[in-house]
UniProtKB/TrEMBL annotation:
<dbReference type="GO" id="GO:0008270">
    <property type="term" value="F:zinc ion binding"/>
</dbReference>
<keyword id="KW-0732">Signal</keyword>
<feature type="transmembrane region" description="Helical">
    <location>
        <begin position="358"/>
        <end position="381"/>
    </location>
</feature>
<dbReference type="InterPro" id="IPR000571">
    <property type="entry name" value="Znf_CCCH"/>
</dbReference>
<keyword id="KW-0472">Membrane</keyword>
<keyword id="KW-0863">Zinc-finger</keyword>
<keyword id="KW-0862">Zinc</keyword>
<keyword id="KW-0479">Metal-binding</keyword>
<feature type="domain" description="C3H1-type">
    <location>
        <begin position="651"/>
        <end position="679"/>
    </location>
</feature>
<keyword id="KW-0812">Transmembrane</keyword>
<feature type="zinc finger region" description="C3H1-type">
    <location>
        <begin position="651"/>
        <end position="679"/>
    </location>
</feature>
<protein>
    <recommendedName>
        <fullName>C3H1-type domain-containing protein</fullName>
    </recommendedName>
</protein>
<feature type="signal peptide">
    <location>
        <begin position="1"/>
        <end position="19"/>
    </location>
</feature>
<keyword id="KW-1133">Transmembrane helix</keyword>
Amino acid sequence: MGQMLLGLVVSIQLIHTNANSFACDTASCAQHDRWEPVSFANSTEVCERLQLKALEDFTAIAPRMCRDWAAAGLGPWGDCRKTYCQALADLAGNLSHDGRNLYYGGDECRPLVNFNQSLCETVYRDAEGFCECLCPTLARLQTASVGDCETKIMSFLFLGRRGVELAQKYGLSGYCSNFLCEYFTMLGEPDPPYPIAGLPPVCKTLDLPWRLYNCIDLLSRKPYTPEPWQTPYPEDSVLECTDGTRHPVDIDHIDTWEVCTTHRFRWRCPQDFPIMCYDPYRCSGDHCCKQTVEECPMGERVASSMLALELPEWTGKWTPDMEKALGPATTLDPYQQFLQNLRTTSPAPSFAQQIADYAWVGTALLATIGLTCSCLACYYMGMINASYMRKVVIGPARLLNAYHADPVTFFASGNLPRNKKREAPLPPMRPAHEIEEERKDNEAFAALEDAWDIATLKGMRHLVNTARDPDPFQAKLLRDAISIARARGLQARSHVAGLLQKGERWLNTLEAEKELLQAIEDARPDLRWVAQTRLTQPPILGKPWHATTLSKVAEGEVRKTGWKHIEDLRAAVQAERLLASLVARTHELPADRCVLDPDGEGVKLLPKGQHRAVWHITGDSYTFNEGANMGGDMGVDVLPPKDLLGDANIDDARPVCAEWAKRSTCKAGRECPWRHCRPQAGDSIRECILFDM
């Protein structure tokens, strides 16, 4: 009894001495408690090289595996925590010189040797946060293609938080902090207006800085401080905001405490209210500032475990959640704890204690019943198997079956039955060239299907933006596939004919759009000159030109060239507005293109390629097609269908009202003969000619 009491006291003493700490071989749970820097000249260089190797080993695989597992719907990467902790364990082991308490790198690498791989894989909160929250949502981290911000963010999250010198070395700039903080905003906002489905619940427990500008300043200010609110502003009743501004506040005027709402929220509390509370919404949508921690309903605000420069579990201490769950260490000595655990009265015997003397009878009875049932089952199954063996394997039935199955005994020599179906010749083998042709036909059909599928992804309309754009690569694929299919004669097959028809329609649409855009681009510059009456300049300044025959011929050639653009544009049905504007602004329409509407609706324009001429001897008119050897009947205008005749509306050629262009209003209203619109290039402007009566 004395030895048992002594062992219990020793156990309680061990628990007491290791209160709030993990039971490790060393107090810090690292390889050694006391570390000394080595005195080698290349100590810093070794530290740098080992850090780069650890970063390369981890960042080369972790982001890719996290995104691949999430994209496949597998959740968090299964080996994330093991890989994370193994990389840090290798780094800590390599920094130790020959396994002794000597380390490379001075103050920069000193925090890295405080590491325990077992605790990392079970307790470390930064490992849990990275693998359970950041890893499965890493696809939401969007960074620019310049600046290599993703690599810098991974370096900061992996090594930059593990010490002051490391934070200075791997600190983030404001540019890269912006991307990380947008990511934290999606993950950490406690009550978002638009919740994101599928976020891991552990993300809400990491206390990530989710207010964008507050987070950017927190990560990019130098020196890096993960919890600046721990140091209050050194003045009473002065509140410091995130944007650096400072504002006086008054406890008697509560509205003065809302000033930081428009200055990116609170950064530090006043000196007389030094405690910043945990709840981010309690005080006008921001953290409260109190005089004591007890005044905060949810406790004091703490740094995120993903951003803190030091976590208690790194040095062998319990996490805050473990301290709350397990309670504080007792101050009683071990003997007093033992006395408190002793029972003061004898409890009543339980049911098991009451029947303990007779329990062997029930046990023996159950064992006998089980053994009997097992023997009977074995006997029954043995009898069945023995009967089967006698009939099939070792009995006379086996010899009789073999005798009946012997074809020599069953059939006399030379009298075997003949089966003509079995003796029929095999079908001829297909020649190699036929198989090769079938393979090529199948490849051509598959290529046509793939080309059509790719073309449909481009769309069925709006295939090019300008006439000068090169053909999309889908057009070349489709043309090649169609030519190969037709060369192999596959158009006779019904399923291939439909694909060929749809593919050729797609290519025709592409060519039509390019012709339309080319016609529009050729005709648009003509808006600036069609309304002009003088289109040429005299070859010699100061001499008559515009009244001469040569001037008329030259201007006719210019107008002829411009009218060709207009006719090309008429063929493009989607350019009606531009066409109408060009026709209306043309000062003189070509006489050989104009005819009277057969229904008396004014002047109409002949379609492209058709002309009207007058026989100079009799004055009779006739029509002819461009390039034809003979024209129509004299005195008879053979007109095309009315829907092919173009309009010659001249409304757009009227001048613009000067008063409307100046004031956007006109006193004459609808009686004004000029157009009420904004003047465009080539428009003439006239004053209103109506007078008050």
